[in-house]
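User: Show me an example of a complex going from sequences to structure tokens.

Assistant: Sure. Here are the input components:
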Amino acid sequence: MSNEKTFDPFFGFNQLSEMWDKQVNGLLYNLANNEEFVRTAGFGLNSYSFYLERLRKNQEQIAALMNIPTKKDVANAAKLSIQTEEKIDILEEQIWKLQDTVSSITKENSGMFEEVVNIVMQMKNEFQKMSKEVAETQKMNADLQELRKEIERDLIEIRREKQKKEPEKKQDKELVLTGINK
Amino acid sequence: MNAFGTNLFPNLNLEKETKRWNQLYKIMTEPKPEIVPTPRKTVWKKNKATLWYHPAKEKRHAIPVFLVYSLLNKAYILDIGEGSSVVGGLTERGYDVYLLDWGSPGLEDADISLENYIIDYLENALKRALRHSGAKEISLAGYCLGGTIAAILTSITELPIKNLSLAAVPIDFSIGIFPDKLLEALQKGQLGLDRFADSYGTIPSEIMYLIFRMVSPGIASSKINLFTRAHDEKYVEKWRRMDKWTKDSTSFAGAAFKQLFNDLYQENKLIKGELVIGGRKVDLKNINCPLFVFSCSRDTIILEKQSLPLMDLVSSKDKSYEVYEGGHVSLALTGVFAEVWDKWLSARSEEIGEVLV
């Protein structure tokens, strides 16, 4: 591999130009950095603006005489469309607000609905529980009724038996009182 | 057998020279390069301004980013083509990017002031980006005068700005690159620009280009650099894009132009806390979000001294300042801005664990 450097014809030129560029920039900076330049620039700027203003004014007047629109007229028409755009933007933002309000209301409503559903579900469970309890109570009631009937039946039977036994006892008592032994 | 010319200049790389002259011929004869933007869609349009949305390739951060470029140049420097695009770099790193392109004002926009740009355009665009993204917060970044505007908005808005990043940003206008006497004349009102702005209505792009050329001369060095490195295809490609962007100046609304020179250059109201935008007093102390400011060491348009005072004026506790090697637009032109910004921003952008496609 060769260690020889290749010849670049622009290398020196570039270095020279960089130096030259710096010097020219410095010179321009110094030329601009004095009061005479500032005064001349100010004067130049003012006269340029003055003549430009006059030119524009004359242009407008000539265009008005010739009844043709100028760039200013076109700009004024364009301003109207920009204003419309601004109004649309304002409307868009109001629609956003409405959307946000509706979505927050929907959110609230869905929350409320969820709560209602929960309550209904809870009530349903409670009702189911209650109906079970009622059914049990009814069953218990029926059992009690049956028991009551049985007891009543038994009582009636006992009473009947008692009633049957009572005349016999009376007879025995009478026999005892009359002194008749069996 | 030796190639032609090698006897005359023994160490001349003929292949390189042929390439150099072919490339130069190409630049002279072919039209200016077409700038292909990163995939995007329009979110909002107002007058000439457009809010672009560039979705992340693979979303890794929940907080989107919003980029604001200077009013004095076109915003496509931030999306100048694949490989060196700031926007592309950010989308590749998993950020959803919103870019506000101010557009070029016409005569009908002569009355647009800084107030209009900040409130009617930037704040509204930010609102729309927040709405479009569905995010609760957004990271704002401004470059050059876009940085000044972003700082002003952050200090007056109630919108949820999570992070603020400013690159090559002028805050102190009492110093600048203008010659001292010229700056003094501007500050004392001896060199009034009001009449000039009024006579034009909207300052045409040709005048803006002229102002830029006056501020940063050196057309020759740029051309000589091209001649010297014309054999390097990548360099030539970048040079052509930069050349297109530099010459593709934007016009400037007269009212904003006057405000820029009167309120900022002449009276330096921003740093003094005297600037009023939309009835709201601009106090940089109101900035309390994480702040990242950086300057470029070879910046000949915005000096480091112009950005530095901001660090002491804000209330942010999380604040960083860096200086990077390069010129005023080199970080944007090379796409390095995305890399530099991502290093600071990623930890502050709510990283999403799972990659969302």
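The lines above are the inputs; the final block is the predicted structure for all two components together. The radius of gyration of chain A is 60 Å.
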